[in-house]
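INFO  loader      accepted 1 record
INFO  loader      residues=221
INFO  predictor   begin
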Amino acid sequence: MNTPPLRLVICGTDTDVGKTVVSALFVQGLEATYWKPVQSGTEGGGDRQRVIDLLGLPKQRWHREAYVFQAPVSPHWAAEREGQCIDLNQLQLPAIDGPLVVETAGGLMVPLTRDWLQIQQLERWQLPVVLVARSELGTLNHTLLSLEALRKRSIPILGLVINGPHHADNPRTLNELGEVPLLCELPPLEELNAAALTRQWHVQNVKAKVETEINRFQASR
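INFO  predictor   done
INFO  writer      dumping tokens
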């Protein structure tokens, strides 16, 4: 039986936790296509352009957004400010061959419309989620709440990526209390580029960890 191509979602516990860098890490490591369905805030070209520039990503390895809004605010409000409303039918996963990495706009409970939260879209997609959390003070509460919200809706969790300076206890506590595999601790990088991300991918053996969790996810379906 043919194994379906790997598709996963990168979501964060909060704003500015490093979702885009982690998305680039997984796009690079899995040789995947990148897609951010909704972009709020266009300064610097948006997150798609950041990933393209960071990895030198060719056209066949990225998919255009369904919606792009100028203001760096919640998608539902960004859309309203431009006289629009997000049509959920436009958020269907792109039909592509090979692995796909989807980056969300903001955290789990961010509204996409006045009556539809991001977590509801994740529930509809039913793709395994890589949750990105900051390493420092406050992350325990944010991360454990996010894990609880995902499990309440039976959304599969692939694992956790902790982004930022190493913390002596938070990774262990989140692994134990959150009952979630730690896929990677991504430290601050002196140079943020494709080579640096590739080094982290190999040094931390991320591919093997991802494959283990994907096999577990597919066996449970």
